[in-house]
């Protein structure tokens, strides 16, 4: 039946919503989403906290800059009339404004004179150097020289010396002689007739030391501690999910091995269990329930097979006795007694039908048992099909039919050999029963990628397209037995035929139990084509 454009338009959103629902319910999708969240959250938080830290830095630096300006303004009257002889006395003046937490250093670049003096180490030729003249608390000459070289390398003194103006923020970390470090926060110029003075303010308070001044934000202790805690939390969550994921994969692997019929026993001959494969205590109850379910299915399948065999034997014995008892009665009754002969004939037909019903019931029970716990092993399907195709020579000659076969060698599947024989038998006999005299039954077994494909074709009347799916339903049968035979043979065939409509139903159930598919289609030239695909054994 052709689909209208409106039907297609309605189905597309449904398929899209179904995919989205599947993605949302999928554990893999949720795990991927969680990983993306774990990546995105720290990036966003880091950006926000870094901006807040930058604002905090600006406040600290402005405070330090303002403090340096106030101290510079307080020192400026004492620096206005100073000369070279008075330079040593500036340490006392500087000590009035500095302490252990706010440390001050005073540099000077004397005004250029006609007498040239040698350039200090680390300065460029043609550039007047700055000299440390005082520090509070006092520092050794080596420590001061190291700090001055740092300011020169950063270009701070060069920029300041060009104009001797502008209060600059530094945010530079330097090691402290007594251990630890301090932050050079600002450098304030003071211009006098003697030269250009530079007041360097540094801080060793916790607010400055623990901040990100003078170093990348990610290297601060608080950020590194938060990163360690966050990574530990993310690793713990992902480890929990990964453990559950691996556990479910182990469950799935064992379930596939059980369904595929692989050997699931240990060295002691015990069946592999879900509980033994479980590594998550919270899933112990689920694993035990799975083990009980598998054990129940195995016991049920065994009980069904035993009951099917016992019931068939129990029914077949009285049927055989009745059949044997009818024969003496037929010989004892006179042939001209038409009524008695007809009664015996009806008894024999009823016995035939009852015998077929017993066989039918046994096949149904065995099919149900095979679905509960299919016994599977590696079976060379090529050899099996070739052997079975050769076994129909007598039947084909009786029906005046021909067989054409093409079987690729070496095709192996994992299934039950007995069940495969039943599948091939039902397909071939179904094709034979519908084929006309002098017709051809075709059997083809080929490889198609990772699948093996069994195709059985006949030249019969085919099937009503509306019933192509229904022929696989249980108890559905729409046939005319004996089609294509002579009238006397057709009558005899019809009299003894018992069709219950379960052959193709059993074919489909068994094929799907082995992970395969079966479909029916009418051939363009007439007849029916049955195609069975089964996964090749790995």
Automatic annotation (TrEMBL):
It is an enzyme of class 2 (transferase). Keywords: Cell membrane, Kinase, Membrane, Phosphoprotein, Transferase, Transmembrane, Transmembrane helix, Two-component regulatory system, Virulence. It is found in: Cell membrane. It is a multi-pass membrane protein. Its EC number is 2.7.13.3. Gene3D superfamilies: 1.10.287.130, Histidine kinase-like ATPase, C-terminal domain. The chain crosses the membrane at residues 227-248. Signal peptide: none annotated. Residues 310-538 form the Histidine kinase domain. The keyword Transport does not apply. One of its GO terms (molecular function) is protein histidine kinase activity. It catalyses: ATP + protein L-histidine = ADP + protein N-phospho-L-histidine. This is histidine kinase.
């Amino acid at each position: 039946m052709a689909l209208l454009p409106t039907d297609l338009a309605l189905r597309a959103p449904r398929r899209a919503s179904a995919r989205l629902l599947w993605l949302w319910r999928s554990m893999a999708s949720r795990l991927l989403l969680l990983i993306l969240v774990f990546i995105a959250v720290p990036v966003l938080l880091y950006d926000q906290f870094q901006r807040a830290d930058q604002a905090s830095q600006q406040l600290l630096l402005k405070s330090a800059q303002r403090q340096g300006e106030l101290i510079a303004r307080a020192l400026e009257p004492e620096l206005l009339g100073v000369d070279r002889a008075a330079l040593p006395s500036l340490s006392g003046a500087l000590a009035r404004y500095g302490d252990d937490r706010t440390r001050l250093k005073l540099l000077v670049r004397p005004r250029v004179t006609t007498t040239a003096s040698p350039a200090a180490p680390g300065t460029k030729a043609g550039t007047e150097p700055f000299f440390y003249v005082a520090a509070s608390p006092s520092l050794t000459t080596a420590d001061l020289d190291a700090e001055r070289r740092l300011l020169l390398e950063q270009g701070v003194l060069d920029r300041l010396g060009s104009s001797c103006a502008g209060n600059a923020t530094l945010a530079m970390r330097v090691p402290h002689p007594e251990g630890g470090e301090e932050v050079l926060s600002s450098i304030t110029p003071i211009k006098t007739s003697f030269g250009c003075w530079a007041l360097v303010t540094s801080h060793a308070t916790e607010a400055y030391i623990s901040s990100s001044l003078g170093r990348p934000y990610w290297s601060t202790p608080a950020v590194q501690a938060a990163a360690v805690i966050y990574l530990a939390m993310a690793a713990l969550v992902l480890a929990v999910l990964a453990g559950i994921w691996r556990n479910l994969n182990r469950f799935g692997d064992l379930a596939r091995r059980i369904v595929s019929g692989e050997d699931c026993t240990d060295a002691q001959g015990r069946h592999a269990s879900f509980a033994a494969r479980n590594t998550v205590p919270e899933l112990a109850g689920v694993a035990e329930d799975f083990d009980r379910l598998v054990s129940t299915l195995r016991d049920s399948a065994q009980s069904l097979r035993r009951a099917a065999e016992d019931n068939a034997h129990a029914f077949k014995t009285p049927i055989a006795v009745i059949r044997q008892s009818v024969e003496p009665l037929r010989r004892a009754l006179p042939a001209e007694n038409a009524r008695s002969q007809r009664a015996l004939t009806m008894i024999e037909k009823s016995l035939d039908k009852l015998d077929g019903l017993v066989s039918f019931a046994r096949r149904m029970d065995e099919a149900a048992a095979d679905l509960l716990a299919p016994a599977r092993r590696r079976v060379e399907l090529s050899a099996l099909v070739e052997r079975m195709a050769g076994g129909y020579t007598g039947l084909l000659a009786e029906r005046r039919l021909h067989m054409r076969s093409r079987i690729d060698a070496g095709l192996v599947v994992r299934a039950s050999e007995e069940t495969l024989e039943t599948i091939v038998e039902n397909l071939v006999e179904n094709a034979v029963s519908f084929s006309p005299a002098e017709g051809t039954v075709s059997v083809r077994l080929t490889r198609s990628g990772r699948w093996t494909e069994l195709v059985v074709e006949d030249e019969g009347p085919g099937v009503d397209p509306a019933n192509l799916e229904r022929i696989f339903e249980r108890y559905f049968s729409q046939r005319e037995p004996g089609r294509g035979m002579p009238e006397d043979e057709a009558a005899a065939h019809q009299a003894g035929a018992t069709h219950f409509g379960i052959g193709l139903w059993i074919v489909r159930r068994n094929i799907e139990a082995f992970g395969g598919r079966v479909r029916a289609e009418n051939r363009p030239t007439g007849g029916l084509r049955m195609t069975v695909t089964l996964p090749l054994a790995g």
